[in-house]
Design a protein that fits this description.
alpha/beta, Rossmann fold, six-stranded parallel β-sheet, 6 strands, globular
Length: about 270
């Protein structure tokens, strides 16, 4: 169902790999709500994914390969997006995360530090580079909206989330700091959405992920939020209905973040 919340708005959506991706759902919903946008992902991810199918579904959206750790690629991305869309950008989704240490099963206490730097660069510093590039190019309209996806491991320990927890902490800090500066300059608002554990290609690579999801479901009064519901939340953050929300980490997790324990979990230890 469309309410035209993004009618006339132009955006860039990072990170859609396949129909399991939250970014994929965001693109579908943004298109339904009247937005025009470009799609982007790292060249290697695009070879593995199905982004061209998504582009076709979304009015033949332009697909622009970009390594989000490369300022040169980001500059090209914004230039081509502004040209293709016929004007400056109104919204950006940063849905990027990758850890070689997680992929290679390195324990948090024994990280490969070259890989650790890569985790930070891809999963967090890429947001700073994106925002810095956009600001220098004046590529985002006043009152534009940038949303990055994060996870509660930035605040609490989930041992198998590994160095991605550190990356999400940095991501949220960049959101606050850049949110201040971009807000002062152009009224651009920047927020993170801390989503429930969600079955995605990236998330499924975390050790014990199925147990993660089951535990979170039992600990959340409303249950885990789906990727589609997360997409709907992103749409609301891109819309003019949330013009004064900025520099926030917004939990979208069915109440998990404020729940100490639930009766369902207690009962599992009293049987």
């Amino acid at each position: 169902m469309s309410n035209g919340l993004l009618k006339g708005k132009k955006g860039i959506i990072f990170g859609a790999l396949n129909d399991m991706s939250i970014a994929w759902k965001v693109a579908e919903r943004a298109y339904e709500e009247g937005a025009e946008f470009t799609l982007t992902n790292a060249p290697i991810a695009m070879r593995m994914g199905e982004i061209n199918q998504l582009a076709e579904k979304c009015g033949n959206a332009l697909v622009i390969p970009a390594d989000a750790t490369s300022v040169e690629d980001l500059t090209n991305l914004f230039e081509k997006s502004v040209e293709a869309l016929g004007g400056k950008i109104d919204f950006v989704l940063h849905s990027i995360g990758m850890s070689p240490n997680v992929r290679k099963n390195k324990h948090y206490t024994d990280l490969n530090y070259d890989w650790y730097h890569k985790t930070m660069d891809v999963s967090a510093m890429s947001l700073h580079k994106t925002l810095s590039t956009a600001m220098k190019m004046d590529a985002i309209n006043d009152w534009g909206s940038v949303v990055a996806l994060t996870y509660i491991a930035a605040q609490r320990v989930f041992p198998d989330y590994n160095d991605m927890a550190d990356a999400k902490s940095l991501l949220e800090s960049i959101t606050r700091s850049f949110g201040y500066h971009y807000g002062e300059k152009s009224k651009v608002r920047i927020n993170t959405i801390s989503q429930s554990p969600t079955v995605t290609t990236a998330g499924s690579g975390v050790k014990g992920f199925d147990e993660f999801i089951s535990f979170s479901e039992q600990m959340s009064p409303l249950g885990n939020a789906s990727s589609l519901d997360c997409a709907n939340y992103c749409i609301s953050m891109f819309s003019d209905l949330t013009k004064y929300v900025t520099m926030q980490n917004l939990f979208h997790d069915g109440g998990f973040s404020n729940t100490g324990v639930t009766q369902n979990v207690i009962e599992k230890f009293t049987k």
